[in-house]
């Protein structure tokens, strides 16, 4: 038997493992970035052009200083370009102060133009990066919505959130501050080298001698540290999961006095996370220290060689000053490549982690997916299913007549909820493991959205959104009027309780409905499902948190309101199931008994045993609750 794999740890999920992917790491990085970057290339292209313009304009300032020093103070010839505009006699006749003021004005003009280019570059980068990251966020969220339920079961919510927030921001920073910066630095280095070679090729070659050493050192260092960034990011995901689990289970923590334990658990995760980043910081400090030493040695060498060359008349004083300026514009960008490599190394990890999510196979229906009538018989035909190799259902076969009320009873782990998950296709049943049909049509051929729209499901642990009660009930029909909402709430016997709140139906429930009691949450969830008006209604132990009297009232209302809907009741409570048309008893994943309440009682089997135990317990509770009459 081939069963669907559902590998998850027993502590709430599996760690997202980016190594289990089809493409290589490099392909994944490029494909992901290019997929979203290409939509905004024109914005980034304009920003890059403005950045290049800023580089060209800034490179003019050292030339103005060079010729001002050499021609005004040193008597060297003025540049040919200037002489084509102003005759040399006129320039020589001007007082030096006027020439200096003219040079200052020219530098000011260049600075203004360079500033405008920088503004355009930064603005374009900001717009482009925000557009890029918005597209990435939208794609991530949309893709996660389409991933199978089994995928969500296998992965921790906190780590998914961490990837969709922290990792997205790292990628944004990569595109904004690193990817474009690499292009700018390459252009700056090439432009500066061209000017430096035109001034003195020998000194330029000496300056270049240090560059390969610095770049090689940076490349080797960050190739070795990439795995440490991955480990640190995984530790951050575990930390996020710990916080998320604690906040989600705040009631349990308070109820059992587990605050100290949770603090210690968080402290342990936090210490590990902090320790990893301290070690990373120590390694980065070594890198920056050695890098600064190399940079200082390069500048010192150029300074010594340049002074000797100036003394020997190989270069003028103005050329020496300009050369030092260009060397700084060369060495510091190369030095900055270390920082960029650092961020790119971390960005590579984040890109890979995001690609893992986007590469996950979403739920997909074939183009010819069917949308048959759903008010038909439901049949389970020799259904077998397993989690992680552990068989949960074993050769299950039964039929639920259309419009009937069908009940399922079984102990913990008997497979009751698995039947519900298979019917709603939260898990897909392998073809060789049997069939589930509605009106004779295999549900594997039915469109998932259509199937789920026609099955109203209420779970044992209902989820409520952090919105008003009215919005929660009308979630499946956003345009529902208040009278319609109140009608379904009345059927679920929650209308009166809601009206007791100060804000009534406009009361905002806390996260996951934490401000409501368990029974109130279940009844709100029932009202939401009834609002769906689905032909199939499935209640998975969804009356467990209400008392027996309210349970009976809700079931009576459901019988009156269900119309022609097929109702499936899953419960461990006999009183909830006894009025059903048929009752299925599951035991160890197999059909143990099937019949009406009276038929099953006559069989003296599992159902009769459970019935007698529960009725006996109910009788004892009634006797205990009777008032005592004092003599």
UniProtKB/TrEMBL annotation:
Kindly indicate whether the keyword Transmembrane belongs to this entry. yes
Provide the primary localization.
Answer: membrane
Q: Name one GO cellular component term.
A: plasma membrane
The record's InterPro entries line, in alphabetical order, gives:
AAA+_ATPase (IPR003593), ABC1_TM_dom (IPR011527), ABC1_TM_sf (IPR036640), ABC_transporter-like_ATP-bd (IPR003439), ABC_transporter-like_CS (IPR017871), P-loop_NTPase (IPR027417), Type_1_exporter (IPR039421)
**Residue limits of the ABC transporter domain?**
378-613
The ABC transmembrane type-1 domain sits at: 46-346
What is the name listed in the Swiss-Prot or TrEMBL entry for this protein?
ABC transporter ATP-binding protein
Its source organism is Candidatus Gallacutalibacter pullicola
The organism's lineage is: Bacteria, Bacillati, Bacillota, Clostridia, Eubacteriales
